[in-house]
Write a structure and sequence with these properties.
alpha/beta, 6-stranded parallel beta sheet, 13 helices
Length: 315
């Protein structure tokens, strides 16, 4: 049995909504009250009566899940943030108590800030753990995108995870979108400069995860946060950055055929990101992007122009 469980979250990420995080509820009301764009309103639409962020508090749900423990082979804890609720930990402890942990692989999407040694000690009982650490940029840039994740907490968790046993696989999972694509190269270089011994070093389908750098996936929704909204001149700048990074990688990182031609998570992934961004012109959504970010800044007392100076001309 492959079982997927989604959870509430302790962050209010820019690209999320109350569907993803219960912490978004208050901001969502303020945002929709001041938003005029029908595109934004449609894509962030959420109604409390139709969505239950607290399903995990229902004993009858867990009673059904616990019945399935003898049959489970894979457990996928999808984001929001699975580590913030006590039921998650209690569930894993019950699996260990019943003696089934060595037969089960755990998979996570997580913002990483709640990692501690107690959690790692529980994971040590399981067959394998695959941990996707959601980080989208550096320092105050990531704080803004994954509001309000503190960089010192992220670094602490990265180094803690880098010292875990071999059966715990960890990779950085970056959602590529308009706010971070112009700093993606700097983020990748930072990750390589840290000298992590295991993060993004495990194999996926016989290839190294993220080419040993970072894993990347594309943001499609909300459409007004997709990197496709960038004007032609900005996309040309990104292409130039990527091509310079390609040479940098060749000179400083990898020259093996796997990374450049075979590995779908190596340079082919960077080319895929660029191909996606250049494939369509969605610059008509720039007014919606501007309104959304300006409204969030009003609600959260942040300043996107200062955090993302390379996008100031669009804000």
């Amino acid at each position: 049995l492959d079982l997927r469980l989604g959870h509430t979250c302790n962050l209010k990420c820019v690209m999320c909504s109350p569907h993803d995080s219960s912490r978004w509820v208050q901001d969502h009301k303020q945002l929709t009250d001041i938003t005029k764009s029908p595109i934004i309103l449609k894509q962030v639409e959420w109604h409390a009566s139709e969505f239950d962020n607290y399903w995990y508090e229902k004993p009858e749900f867990w009673a059904q899940v616990y019945e399935q423990i003898p049959h489970i082979k894979h457990l996928y804890f999808a984001g929001g943030e699975p580590l913030m609720i006590k039921e998650h930990k209690l569930f894993l402890e019950e699996i260990v108590r019943r003696g089934y942990a060595k037969e089960i692989t755990l998979r996570y999407n997580s913002n990483g800030i709640l990692i501690d040694q107690e959690m790692i000690d529980i994971w040590n009982n399981f067959k394998q753990v695959r941990y996707a650490f959601s980080i989208d940029d550096l320092q105050e840039r990531n704080y803004y995108i994954r509001y309000p994740a503190k960089w010192q907490d992220i670094e602490r968790s990265l180094w803690l995870l880098d010292g875990t046993p071999d059966h715990i696989h960890v990779h950085v999972a970056c959602a590529v979108q308009v706010l971070n694509i112009k700093n993606l190269v700097n983020f990748a270089k930072w990750k390589l400069s840290q000298g992590f011994k295991k993060i993004n070093k495990f194999k996926l389908d016989d290839f190294e995860s993220g080419g040993g750098i970072i894993n990347m996936h594309l943001l499609y929704i909300p459409t007004f946060l997709s990197a496709r909204i960038l004007p032609k001149e900005d996309k040309e700048e990104i292409r130039k950055q990527f091509m310079e990074f390609k040479q940098w990688l060749w000179d400083n990182y990898r020259q093996d055929d796997s990374f450049w031609h075979l590995n779908p998570y190596g340079w082919k992934r960077w080319e895929g990101i660029l191909k996606f961004v250049e494939a369509q012109d969605h610059s008509n959504l720039l007014p919606d992007f501007k309104e959304y970010i300006q409204n969030l800044d009003k609600i959260r007392e942040t300043n996107a122009k200062e955090v993302f100076p390379e996008l100031a001309h669009l804000l």
